[in-house]
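To whoever is covering the structure queue this week,

Two jobs came back overnight. Logging them here so there's a record in the thread.

Job A:
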Amino acid sequence: MGLNIFDIVVAKTFRIEDKKNNFSGFYLRELINNFRESIASSLYSSVDDWTLLQMLAVVVKFEFPDAGIQNITDQYLNKLKTEHIEAVWSDFKIAVAKTFDFFDNCLHIKGGRLIPYRYFYLTVTAYFYRNQKPDYSFLDKYFWYYSFHNVELLKDTTQLWQHITFINQQKANSTYSFNQFEIDKNSLRKSFYSYRGRLSRAILSLYANQKPQDWAKPHKDVLSDVYYLLTDKPNLHHIFPVNFIKQSGIASQIECDSLMNIAYLSQITNLKISDKNPLDYLKEYDEPALEAVLRSHLIPTTILEWSRADALPENALSIFIEERITLLLEALRLKLDGIEFNVFDTENRTNN
C-alpha cells in the first residue's frame, strides 16, 4: 500500500533540527498529534488527517496567494511548504478549535458524523482564521441556509471557493446578503436515514440542535457524549414503530421510514417502547413536562392529544408527518430570519 497524501506532505515538509545553523526541527505529524491531544475532550478530535490537511491548505492559500495552492486536491496539497505551515500554524490551531467548538457548543451537533457537508470544516475554519470579531449569528444562518437549501450548493471545490469568497467578504466588512432560500416540503417528507445523505444529516443536525430532552427524564439532554461515541450512527427511534405500522396498516413504507417519523431517544427508553402503539407508550410518559419535551424534538403535540383521547385517526402518520414538517420549517424560519424564505411542494405539483 502506497503512501497517502498526508504521509507525503509530512515527509516533504520534515526538517531535522540543526542547532549549528539555528534551524528548528519541523514534523507535521507531531504538530497534528499534539493538536489532537490539546482538544482530546472534543468529539471532533477524531476528524481525519486528510480533512485537517485540506483545512490547512485553505488557510495557506488565503495567507500566501502566491504559494501555488490553487485547490485542495492532492496535486495542490503536495505543494504545501514547511515555512508556510509554520507561519499559519498558531492561528490555524485557534481557528480549527473554534470551528469544532461552534459545531459542538453552538450548534449542539455532537460529533462529525452529522455535519451535512464535509466542506463546512474548511469554510468555517477559513471564517475563524485571524478573525477577531466573528459574527456567530451570520455563521449560524450560513450553516442552516446551505445545509437545507433545496439545491446542493457546497458539493464541489468550485462552490467551496465561492463560499470562502462570500464569508471573507462578511469577515472584511460585516456586510452580507443571502439569496432567497428554497426548500421542498416533499424532500423532507421523503427523507430517510442515510449516513452520506446531505439532507438526512441536516435534518438530524436540526433535531440535535434543539437540545432534545429525554422522554423518561425530562430536563435531561438525551444527546450525551458517550451516547454518540458508542455507536456508528445516532440512536434513532421510530415514533410510530415499524412493526406497529405493519400490523396496523396505517401507513406506507415511505411514511414509516421518513425522518419525520424519527426522534432521538436514550437506548433504555427506546428498548422500553419497542413496537408499542404510540397511544399506549405515551401514556407512560404523560406528565406535565412531556409537552415541552416533545417540542424539544420538534414533535407535534397532536400525538399526545390522540393518546389522551385513546383514538388514532386512520391517516394518523400522514397527519403527524405534515405537522412535523410545519414545525421543522418554523424552526428553520427562525434561524434564517431576514432571509427570503420560499417553501414549495413537488408532491402537490405531481398530483395536480
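Job B:
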Amino acid sequence: MKNLEFILFLLLLIGGINWGLVGAFNYNFVTTVLGDGTATRVVYALVGLGAVYEAYKMMKKRTA
C-alpha cells in the first residue's frame, strides 16, 4: 500500500506542477511530453483519482 501511496503522491506532484506551468506560462508539460491523445487523458485521469484518494484519506483522518 505504501508503494501505491507514493505513486499517487508523485502523480499529484506532477499534476500540481503541470497546472502551475499552465497557469503561469500557458505551457502544458504533460501534453508536450505525451502528445494530445489517449496517454495524456490517462495521466489526467490518474492524477484525478490520486486527488480523490488523498481527499478521502484526509477526511478519514479527520473523523477518526
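Note for Job B: The chain has three helices and no strands.

Please reply-all if you pick these up so we don't duplicate work.
Q.
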